[in-house]
TrEMBL record:
Residues 9-107 form the Semialdehyde dehydrogenase NAD-binding domain. Transmembrane segments: none annotated. It comes from Dokdonia sinensis. SMART domains: Semialdhyde_dh (SM00859). It comes from the Bacteria. This is NAD-dependent epimerase/dehydratase family protein. InterPro entries: NAD(P)-bd_dom, NAD(P)-bd_dom_sf, Semialdehyde_DH_NAD-bd.
Amino acid sequence: MTSPSNKKTAIILGATGLTGGLLTELLLKDSAFAKVKILTRRPTHFKHEKVEEIICNLLDVSTFEEHFTGDVVFCCIGTTKAKTPDKEKYHAIDYGIPINTAQLAKANGIKIYMVVSSMGTSAKSPFFYVRTKGEMERDLLKVGITNTFIIKPAFINGRPDDDRKGEKWLKRMMAVMDFFMVGPLKKWKSTQAEDIARAMAQLAKSPEDHPNIENQEIKSLSLAYRV
């Protein structure tokens, strides 16, 4: 059992999304966490004595900086080309939010920061969306937080069927493709959102000694997690 003095305060960005929501549910049950601060632009459904909900604009640090204290930051914020076709806004979300909050975390002495990114990113890519995530990963490491973790799943499975157009078809296609992904291709298998959430919770309690957490390690960390 975790002693009261060792219990952590977590900050979650993106609790209204799939992975962030699953992670929040885990932390509320986990005795290692005394408080869960949810930074969100709209009220959530989480009602629990551990929850401190801060309504704010994540694109504007001044709307939440006084509340940004704790032990670990979980950044589950992200968008897609379909949801955010405007490149400037996309960059502000997928690059700006992680970098700005990491800098604030560093200034406030928070020693664990993790963000959900994806496989195949590169700061040198000619493709804007791939390059943006790659630049975010590169610059996040430059912030210098003691324990920085970049969670790099392939396709994230576990979304509701009506979450986005073509979801059912995509799930079926990935199920077939996963069967053939062995050997070097194994790292490209689809990743369950629940495994990502469990892996992040485990990392907060038992940090690894390297920043990039890819598919196979996500799965093993998920299996190691205990509430």
